[in-house]
Amino acid sequence: MTKPLLDVEDLRVRFHLRTGTVEAVRGVSFQLGRERLGIVGESGSGKSQTGRAILGLTPPPGEVTAKRLAFDGIDLQKASKRTLRTLRGGRISMVMQDPKYSLNPVMTIGEQIIEAYQAHVKAGKAEARDRALAMLEAVKMRDPGRVFSLYPHEVSGGMGQRAMIAMMLVTEPDLLIADEPTSALDVTVSMEVLRILDELVSERGMGLIFISHDLKLVSSFCDRVLVMYAGRVVEELEAKNLRDAQHPYTQGLMRCLPTLANDVRPLPTLNRDPAWAL
Q1: DSSP 267
Q2: CB-based contacts of 205: which residues, under 8 Å, 6+ apart?
Q3: Domain span at 231
Q4: According to the model, what pLDDT value does residue 178 have?
Q5: Which of 14, 47, 101, 270 is the most exposed, having the fewest neighbouring CB atoms within 10 Å of its CB?
Q6: In total, how many domains does the chain have?
Q7: Same domain for 179 and 162
């Protein structure tokens, strides 16, 4: 890999609670080029907190530390609030997992996409509107003009997810952190969204962090995979070699996937080793 787009070394996220300190992310390190990096693991393994920490979105009482956290040569830990506001939504975007909590309920879908675009691109209202409609069409909204005028509560979960993806891609970011971006979408729309992301990576050189529970999807779509367990990375490997994983946790996740060829009942469950969390 040449000069990395994102350089993360010993990233830690701690939450200081009345009952004690919880370390949600423990010593995560990786470099990202202009490629597709998948992060997989069960719920609570630290995937989403890793993505939020990179963007500086860890809520209080959270504490983020790292030996190095740099984007395109910019030290994100020392960057000013103004610099971070410029980067967030402009050069770095994040698709959150649940659109219900990410979309503004008192603004229409179109207004929110226009606002995101004009916050980072000098454009008039007409140009921003055309750009927003084009992005809604790109994520396969059946009637972009109608959806443009709707409020978040008037769209389905899948449509809300696509609206969020359109909003995050409208500025053509250099780095996209996608947290379960296709979880609320049907298969055909999901494949179309993945095609858009793939084009942005291959044609524009965008870096993509793809957070998912779907191991089969990650193995076919991503270039590399980080496997997380209990807040730390237990294995890193090429996505195409996911079935050849060496760590017993990754092997256990793969064995738990149902297949049409073999009728296994009940499905295997993970036999956890306390040493994995150390």
Answers
A1: P
A2: 34, 174
A3: 1-91+175-189+206-278
A4: 93
A5: 101
A6: 2
A7: no
